[in-house]
Amino acid sequence: MSSTATWISAIGSAGSLLGFASYVWIMLLNRKDQPEIRQQEQAHSVSAWLDEGSRHERAEDYVVCVHNGGDAPAFDCTVTVQRPDEDTPHQLRLAILPPRATAVRGLPFGHDRLPADDLYSTAAVPGLAFTDSHGGHWDRDSAGQLTRTDRRTLRGRWRPRT
Length: 162
Prior knowledge:
The protein is an alpha+beta fold and 162 residues long. Helix content is 29%, strand content 30%. It has a five-stranded antiparallel beta sheet with strand order 4-3-6-7-8, with no helix packed on it. Strand 6 and strand 7 form a beta hairpin. The longest helix is centred in the N-terminal third of the chain and has 43 residues, at 2-44.
């Protein structure tokens, strides 16, 4: 009877050890991913749009707004705006966009009156490229889709192309 109890106790101990090791391994994997998740959340909080100047106490009819809702600055922001009636895009650059700040600038192609329908059309939505505080390069297209443009991970490893 005691040898059966010893075997049951050994199997229970081995199962407990295996369960604890699995828990520690999963926690370590999640911990490694947290900085990359925070970096991606930071990138998701940076956006650009066109708006009426009067909403931002500006004299221009329309302005470009670039917002950083994250806790870290965004660097080298390039906003690309294309008028629906032109083929050539216009660019606006910001060296730094502080955390929780909105930069409001005049349109990079002048102050011509745009019809309100054109302001909110798909073609008039600005694209945005920027570098996050970790050195990651990001691009938000005119459809609002955010993609990482470099292949380096937060820990300096190269990600495979997808």
